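wait is this the right file?? whatever heres the structure
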């Protein structure tokens, strides 16, 4: 039995952390909103008062946080994970952040005599609950080997993509075509509707064609406006595309398709859809393009 700390109990963390209790580990959790820890405490976890408390009482600390600012604050801030004695502790960060943020955290962890593995994941809430995520690991080989048993609790597959920062880069690479796909699908739906085709039939036809993304059939109800559990929202996609564009700028790589998609996600967020499933961009954009057509 290992003392595991889990930091960040958002949509993903809330279903990932219980897997360590199920695997027989002693679990300490921390979340900025402490009430989110209550279901885990009821199942036997301990709620830490601060990130420092979680780190000092754990052999392994896993974090999955919302954005770069949160990761930097939770690791390096007052009462942060690295504010106390953590020599020999293994830190695994599974957040989706920019590569330079992961490099900063890796350097800060190493300076404290601890190990760091960057492991952002491909997959949403359903796969997370079932332990079927895909981890994009980065770090030195010894730390990766040490982290593997804990990642196996959460993941169907892991790959080692390089040094710190490369995992974050690979996650942005994976998410870029996904973000652009929903934008392209919205334009296709708008085109079909403008010519008199019916939205539901358009989606059914695309789903049974070579133009379908693997999850399109599962996402169709959300596209059509049915209310259900949100796995990955519009605001999160907007955040990721902003990270893609900043990273691309730093590497000298223009990303015109991502730039176009960002405008749509930003407009949807401004229109009050930020907390809806990212696929809602299809409904938002096709409706907007249809309105523009009728006004011309």
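ok assuming it is, sequence goes like this
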């Amino acid at each position: 039995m290992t003392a595991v700390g889990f930091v960040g109990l958002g949509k993903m963390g809330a279903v990932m952390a219980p897997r360590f209790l199920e695997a027989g580990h002693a679990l300490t959790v921390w979340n900025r909103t402490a009430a989110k820890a209550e279901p885990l405490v009821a199942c036997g976890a301990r709620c830490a008062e601060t990130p420092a408390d979680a780190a000092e009482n754990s052999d392994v600390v896993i974090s999955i946080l919302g954005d770069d600012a949160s990761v930097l604050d939770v690791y390096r801030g007052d009462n942060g994970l690295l504010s106390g004695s953590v020599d020999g502790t293994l830190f695994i960060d599974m957040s989706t952040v920019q590569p330079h943020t992961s490099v900063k955290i890796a350097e800060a962890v190493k300076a404290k005599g601890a190990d760091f593995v960057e492991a952002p994941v491909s997959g949403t809430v359903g796969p997370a609950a079932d332990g079927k995520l895909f981890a994009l690991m980065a770090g030195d080989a010894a730390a990766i080997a040490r982290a593997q048993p804990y990642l196996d609790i959460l993941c169907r597959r892991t790959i080692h993509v390089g040094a710190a920062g490369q995992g974050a880069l690979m996650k942005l690479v994976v998410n870029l075509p996904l973000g652009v796909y929903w934008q392209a699908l919205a334009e296709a739906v708008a085109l079909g509707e403008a010519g008199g085709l019916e939205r539901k039939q358009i989606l059914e036809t695309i789903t049974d064609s070579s133009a379908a993304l693997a999850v399109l059939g599962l996402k169709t109800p959300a596209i059509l406006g049915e209310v259900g559990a949100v796995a990955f929202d519009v605001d999160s996609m907007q955040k990721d595309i902003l990270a893609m564009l900043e990273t691309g700028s730093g590497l000298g790589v223009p990303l015109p398709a991502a730039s176009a998609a960002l405008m749509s996600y930003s407009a949807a967020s401004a229109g009050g859809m930020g907390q809806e499933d990212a696929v809602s961009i299809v409904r938002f954009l096709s409706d907007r393009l249809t309105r523009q057509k009728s006004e011309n």
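Residues 178 and 260 are 13 Å apart (CA to CA). so i think its the right one actually
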